[in-house]
Design goal:
With 61 residues, the protein is an alpha+beta fold. It has 2 helices and 3 strands, in the order βααββ.
Length: 61
């Protein structure tokens, strides 16, 4: 299980700016890119739950 930032949410860019100021490097990748990476890694997206900024992904390998 892990969270990915949904760059299409209204607050994603503000969250990314805040995290950058706090010293983290942030990449706002589209959700489709995450899903393609999971599939390319022989993973199966079992479940996802949308949130205010994040999407929770449950992946099975």
């Amino acid at each position: 299980m892990f969270d990915v930032v949904d760059p299409d949410t209204p607050t994603a860019e503000n969250w990314a700016i805040l995290e950058t100021y706090l010293g983290s490097e942030v990449f706002l990748e589209p959700l489709a890119a995450w899903q393609a990476l999971i599939k390319a890694s022989a993973g199966k997206l079992v479940k996802n739950l949308p949130g205010e900024v994040f999407q929770l992904y449950k992946v099975s390998f």
